[in-house]
Amino acid sequence: MDFSFTEEQTLLEESVARFIQNDYNFESRQKLVKSETGFSGDHWSTFAELGWLGVPFEEADGGFGGGAVESMLMLENFGRGLVVEPYLATVVLAGGALKHGGSTEQKARYLPGIVDGSVQGALAYVEPQGRFNLADLKTEATASGDGYTLNGYKAVVLNGPSADLLVVSARTGGDQRDESGVSLFLVPGDADGVSRRDYPTVDGLRASEITFENVQVGADALLGDEGAGYPILEQVIDDGIMAIGSEAVGCMEVLYKDTVEYCKTREQFGQPIGKFQVLQHRMVDMFMEHEQSKSLMYMAAMRLDEGYGPEAQKAVSAFKVQVGKSGRFVGQNAVQLHGGMGMTDELNIGHYFKRLTIIDTLFGNVDHHLKRFGRL
Amino acid sequence: MAESSHRQFAEEIRAFVAENWQEPDPDLARWRDALITRCWHLPHWPQENGGPGWSPTQQFIWAKCLAQAGAPDLQTDGTLIVGPLLYQGMKGVNEQPLATAWLDELRGGVDQWQVLVREPDWDFTATGLTTVIDSSGSISGTKLIRPGAETKYLCCLARKAGAAVWALFEAEENEVSGGCLVLDGAAVELEISAEDDVARLVRLIPEHQLYRSFDIQSQLQALRRYWDTMEFDEDEVSELLRSHAELGVAAEALAAMEERYVHALDAGLELPFPREVLNARSREVLIELGDLQVRSFGYYALPYPDPLLTHNEGPVGPGTEGDIGVGMDTDVRRTLGRLTGELYEDAFSESFVLHDTIAKDLEL
């Protein structure tokens, strides 16, 4: 593998790192979490001005033409800052569905709004009974007139409260768990028949439970071919894993560094606790867990950029397993070494741990991806 | 080195392996001769000392190609440790006839060295070494020795006038008893200064010996093939399959770490982590692999814990009908040793030393 970055990639990485360092401290982030929307509109505009919202899209669609490596570089820094702006939901998931499955007309209609920050999106694909099976759908889309009628229920739709555009998975054929017969639809967030129950998640983001009751959409709302939405969804979710996994690597780095710093200053029995060998060894283990995750992050990003297929899927699942295990280890030990204050709201440690815990569950946990890795 | 050059190098190595290591009945003598002819039995030696002068990436590719083909690299204590000690430690006095002769022997494939570091009840510190060289150049003490190996020369870590020293001498007239070698005034022929920090001695392991992920992956594949042939009950192996997948991920992570490390070495960049991290992780994964092998072989694992076995003679060992090509004599035995307490202290101490070294490097 060639781990060298291009000049453009390096500039992008530096620009995001600078923003996180200068404009995204823990205190201001906590204020955003408590605000009504849960994020900053000003930051979102900045993301658009700096071109970050267009990074994964083709230049012809107004984007930067970036791939998994660019996503990795950005999201690792987002992880360091615990960024709450809905980049994942809007750009990676909803935008990703358009990128992988959208027609020229659909891209022309929606992507410019995503890139300039005026349109926010969400991917509504989880159903309560489905666990991590993307094909397990009770939501149905039936042909009616020139278009479709959607009925069903979607759970934990990230950024649901702010989404102008919903990408919804629904069954147009086959049985409840068949991969064929899954279709994707573009549904306006305020369409008739769409009702939401919004709530904050454990890690400070926003999500919704969304009910679709006789929601009418036109034929032009179908993303890709009818019944052939599963491969698109799978690719989008793998892009999502790449993104949140990179975020987790950034979170782990902060937890490791802050823990080392704390152990060097906190004194007990007349010396810094970091002098105790047993604690040093724990920090070494935290470091190694982080480095394993980071190495798999590079490998997964490069495999994805080489082309989407079983090799890339396997690398992504390996990465997700590692991030799940390492995230828990690093988070738990950071809390342990900080003592009780590690779980208080005043200290950042517990917030990173919460984000890592959510990341483990999002898009399939360790068990799910171990099984997928073994199968591929 | 450009990507295309790496590909070309890998193709050259694969062609060499295919020509000289022919499955299913490879000729070990032919393989050995082919390596020695090209000096590829010294993959980490610089060109000026008679090696191929390969870059870290080339050494990495070499290790990968051999592991994938199941071909042995024929590394020994002599080529791994003694040779580098001689050409590094004897700088400026290379004319020393003895050092030159020993280096020539190693280059020519004559190698009967054994490196002795550990001692009974040793605390893994340089000051804790009890083997000493006196002012007349005689060495005395007790060292743990690998049984069964043909040994002509010894390279012992000892103390002399308060400093750590490598003592090199012929291995005659010494007494071996219960895995220990008692040295009683043997005459040291050559002394080379050693690092006083024993934790750093692990750095003697050359780069390419650090890269174990390919070997681990090969063993995991062999294990799956073995399970397929045994037609185990599905319920019986479901836990094994999960452990197998977990180890597969661990091996992928190790491979990715190795590649990052090698890339940084080759590009002259700051290393992403201390090299002991690779050593520590590969040890941990190998112990887990051994554990999985023991669990999956069931009763078949039991013939192997005898430390005096230099070759596996059980029903699934190399050369048997059930040969599954896994590291029975290293990993399985080691795990069994750990499980039964025989080697537990050893494994624990090694891990402890590596963690200490990494902590120092990270300035914790």
Task: Provide a concise account of the structure shown.
The complex is a heterodimer of chains A (376) and B (364). By secondary structure, chain A is α+β, with helices and mostly antiparallel strands.
Describe this structure in words.
The complex is a heterodimer of chains A (376) and B (364). In chain A, 52% of the residues lie in helices and 16% in strands. Chain A has 376 residues and is an alpha+beta fold. Chain A has three domains: 7-119, Acyl-CoA dehydrogenase/oxidase, N-terminal domain (Butyryl-Coa Dehydrogenase, subunit A, domain 1); 122-227, Butyryl-CoA Dehydrogenase, subunit A, domain 2, CATH 2.40.110.10; 231-375, Butyryl-CoA Dehydrogenase, subunit A, domain 3. In chain A, strand 2 (140-144) and strand 3 (147-158) form a beta hairpin. In chain A, helix 8 runs antiparallel to helix 9 (310-338) and helix 9 packs antiparallel against helix 10. Chain A is globular, with a radius of gyration of 21 Å. The model of chain A has no long low-confidence stretch (mean pLDDT 96). Chain B has 364 residues and is α+β, with helices and mostly antiparallel strands. Chain B folds into three domains: 3-74, no CATH class; 79-197, Butyryl-CoA Dehydrogenase, subunit A, domain 2, CATH 2.40.110.10; 211-361, no CATH class. Chain B is 48% helix and 12% strand. Chain B has a four-stranded mixed beta sheet, covered by helices on one side. In chain B, strands 2-3-7-6 form a four-stranded antiparallel beta sheet, with no helix packed on it. In chain B, a hairpin with a 2-residue loop joins strand 4 (153-160) and strand 5 (163-170). The longest helix of chain B has 34 residues, at 234-267. Mean pLDDT of chain B is 80; it is low at 305-312. The A-B interface holds A 1-4, 260, 263, 274, 277, 280-281, 283-285, 287-288, 291-296, 298-299, 315, 318, 321-322, 370-371, 373-374 and B 3, 241-242, 244-246, 248-249, 252-257, 259-260, 263-264, 267, 272-273, 277, 280-281, 352, 355-356, 358-359, 362, 364.
